[in-house]
Write a structure and sequence with these properties.
292 residues, mainly alpha, 3-stranded antiparallel β-sheet, 3 strands, globular
């Protein structure tokens, strides 16, 4: 089993650096619970290559990493909410469930509340189709979201709570392997949002978040290589693209030849050609997902 643990707990094979955020909430009813989703900066490692159970960071965490890197809202780069009905197969619905969660997180982190409501509705519809609707059945969840539509901290809490419910549901029902599919769709969308915004705004600060996220690729590929979905043609094609992306990122001038523990993340830089190459592969794999 693959378990991700803090570096100080054990001697492990290799690690990924994930920058997490503190999720806080201004509502007095939510403050204590918000402490339970505190996501501090930490180093995590992978314990066993033979694992089939992988713990992924939440898409809200990734949205926060990019937000801290300078990613602002850019209209028109998220997946069209009206494309929902195009996703007919279970695999397409699963991948785009992750896509819409990433778009939801992006909108919340950038104060786009009406768009966030639209994406929340899509996530609920897909959860019904995927048989995980019990995660979203709480009336309090939607009431809280609507009542706090202008309170970003409270909305962050709501989404963090959703993530926790989903993780618990999949684990309790021995469906952990689905996390890899949901996360893959969301991760690709988050990388698309970042590369698109970076290319449009010329904000080079976002590059640090991009490079950090490529360090998760080994884990994603491992997740896609196990479970009943591993031989699905779409998954096989996406996995092939992600392997190419990993090989590309390992050869970035700033990264090449360095052990991960030796990378000064606060100084990360990638050149324009590397960004262009990265963007092209991300666009290619995203098109396979969102075009149904």
């Amino acid at each position: 089993m693959i378990k991700i643990k803090p570096i100080l707990q054990s001697s492990l094979m290799y690690f990924l650096l994930l920058n997490f955020l503190m999720v806080s909430c201004t509502s007095s009813n939510n403050q204590q619970e918000a402490q339970d989703v505190e996501l501090d900066e930490q180093v995590v490692m992978i314990e066993d290559e033979s694992a089939t159970d992988i713990v992924f960071p939440s898409l809200l965490q990734i949205a926060s990493i990019f937000k801290r890197s300078g990613l602002d809202y850019v209209d028109g780069i998220t997946n069209d909410a009206d494309k929902l009905e195009n996703y007919e197969s279970q695999m397409s619905q699963s991948l785009n469930f992750g896509v819409y969660v990433a778009d939801l997180s992006y909108c919340i982190k950038n104060g786009q509340t009406q768009n966030a409501m639209n994406y929340l509705a899509n996530v609920k519809v897909l959860s019904d189709k995927l048989g995980i609707s019990s995660v979203f059945d709480s009336k309090d969840l939607y009431t809280t979201f609507e009542e706090n539509i202008d309170n970003q901290d409270s909305l962050i809490y709501v989404i963090a709570n959703l993530q926790e419910r989903l993780d618990d549901y999949l684990q309790n029902n021995e469906m952990d392997y689905l996390s890899a599919i949901y996360f893959t769709g969301g991760w690709v969308e988050a990388m698309h949002l970042a590369t698109s915004a970076m290319n449009l705004s010329q904000n080079e600060a976002i590059s640090s978040g991009l490079v950090e996220q490529t360090l998760i690729l080994d884990v994603i590929v491992k997740g896609l290589s196990s479970g009943p979905h591993k031989d699905n043609p779409l998954i096989a094609s996406i996995k092939e693209d992600l392997v190419k992306l990993k090989e590309m990122s390992d050869n970035f001038d700033f990264i090449k030849g360095r052990e991960i523990e030796d990378i000064p993340f606060e100084e990360i830089q990638i050149n324009a050609q590397e960004v262009s190459n990265l963007s092209k592969v991300i666009a290619q794999v995203r098109a396979k997902i969102v075009n149904g």
